[in-house]
Structures are given as C-alpha cells and as structure tokens.
Write a structure and sequence with these properties.
signal, alpha/beta, globular, palmitate, Iontro_rcpt_C, 9 helices
Length: about 260
C-alpha cells in the first residue's frame, strides 16, 4: 500500500515537472514576473541582422545589437524586465498574435499589411534597400537584373521591394529565413543578386571584399517597434522614444552601432 502510494506520488511529480518544462518551451513566460519582481516583457527578434540584432560568437551567445539596447532602455525606463527570444523573421508577427512574445524589435518596417495585424510605434530609424552582388557580376543597375535570380529574406520589406522590381524587370525571386543564408547563396552562385538593407549589408561588405552593391532611392519608412493590437504600451513606448531623441540617448545608440554622425 505504501509502495502504491509512493509510486503514485512520484508519477504526479514527474507529470507536473514535464508540464512545467513544456510550458517554458512554448514561451508562456510572456508577461510573467522576473526574479526581482518586475513584470517581464518578451521581445521577439531575428538575430541575423547586424548591427540591429545578432550573436557575436567571438564574444558569447547573447543576442546583442542596436534593437536590443533600444529595447532595454525603453523597458527599463517603464519598469519592466526584458527577455529576448530569437526566431525567424517571417514568424514574428504570428508569434506575437499567439501571445508568445510581447513586442517585436527586428528592424521591422511598418507596412500597411503589417499594421492590420499589429500596432507600430513611431519610426526610430531609417535605412535604404541595397542591391548586392559579387564584384565580377557587373550588376550596377536594376536593368542588369534582367533574367537574374534575386534572394531576399522571407517576410521582409525587401521581399516586397523585389516584387515591385519584378513588375518592371524579369527576375526570379527566392527567399530564405536568414540573412547569412542569403549571403552564402549569393557567394556560391545560387543567387545572382540579393536585396538587403544597406545598414546591415555594410557589415558584411566590410568583412568580404568580393561583395559589392548599390543603394536604391526609395521612400523607405524606416523601422518601428511592433506591439499587439490595442496595446496600452504603444503610447508609453512612443513617449520614451521621444524622450530619448530629445535627450540625446537615441543619437548615442545610433553612433554606437552604426558609427559616424547620424542625422
């Protein structure tokens, strides 16, 4: 009888432990409470987009970058603890709509289509599209893309740009989940060219002399923070963003991660 009771008790504890592990793996820690009693906000990002968000394996396994520092500054000001969760860019909005993350900072442009699913803060940084290729490709204009295969990141604003270009120039569009995949496929000849944000591409080009590119003139709307529809945090985030622009903290972050004097 005692053994039966003991086995039953052990079974209950094991099931409970497994359930707890499963909950954590599903990201249900969203909006939980941190070790110091602060409410936790989970930031979703795609850590393949230096200097916005990436992992420097020579330093460690932590996700770092401009967006991470910006998110830390905002959430600290508002009294939250921040946790950063890496996932594919194309799955970020779905993850937030499912309640697995609380906010998105991933160099995301607030398009009309995305704004139907999430709320966006004010734009905090603006960059441009770059057509990237190998130096010996002789691709120096959009017309040179005629008949070429162009790589873009799945779910990105660059994919929309590729579709726009395809209306004027005959190109084949292929997508990948991660920027390094796109660069690698460009290097190995699977792509003739790629469309990547110029700020991000600057880092790759500094490390690889075989890469070249040119920036497209555009009315790019820049990057904004995505929050759930109707979130009360949107107004609070905008307030802190404005304060950071006025007190110079935003300029310090931009200079730290992008270098030079930003307008």
């Amino acid at each position: 009888m005692k053994k039966w009771f003991l086995y039953s008790l052990i079974s209950i504890l094991v099931v409970g432990l497994l359930s707890a592990c499963g909950t954590s793996g599903n990201g249900d820690e969203t909006s939980g409470e941190g070790e110091d009693g602060k409410k936790v906000l989970v930031m979703g990002t795609s850590a393949d987009y230096p200097p916005f968000e990436y992992i420097d394996t020579e330093v460690g396994e932590e996700i770092i970058g401009f967006d991470v520092d910006l998110a830390k500054a905002i959430t600290e000001e508002l009294g939250y603890e921040l946790k950063v969760q890496d996932m594919d860019f194309g799955s970020l909005i779905t993850a937030m709509k499912s309640g697995n993350i609380d906010l998105i900072l991933a160099g995301m442009t607030p398009t009309e289509e995305r704004a139907e699913q999430v709320d966006f803060t004010d734009v905090y940084y603006t960059a441009n599209h770059m057509i990237v290729s190998l130096k010996d490709s002789n691709i120096t204009s959009l017309e040179d893309l005629e008949g070429k295969t162009v790589g873009v990141q799945m779910g990105s604003i660059q994919y929309d740009k590729a579709e726009e270009i395809a209306e004027e120039v005959n190109i084949t569009i292929e997508n990948r989940d991660r920027i390094p995949q796109i660069v690698q496929d460009l290097k190995t000849g699977r792509f003739d060219a790629a469309i990547i944000e110029d700020t991000v591409m600057k880092g790759f080009m500094e490390k690889d002399e075989d890469l070249t590119g040119f920036t497209l003139e555009s009315d790019e709307e820049g990057s904004a923070i995505a929050l759930p529809k109707g979130s009360e945090l949107t107004e609070e985030f905008n307030r802190v963003l404005k304060e950071m622009e006025e007190n110079g903290e935003m300029e310090k972050l931009i200079n730290k991660w992008f270098g030079g004097e930003e307008e």
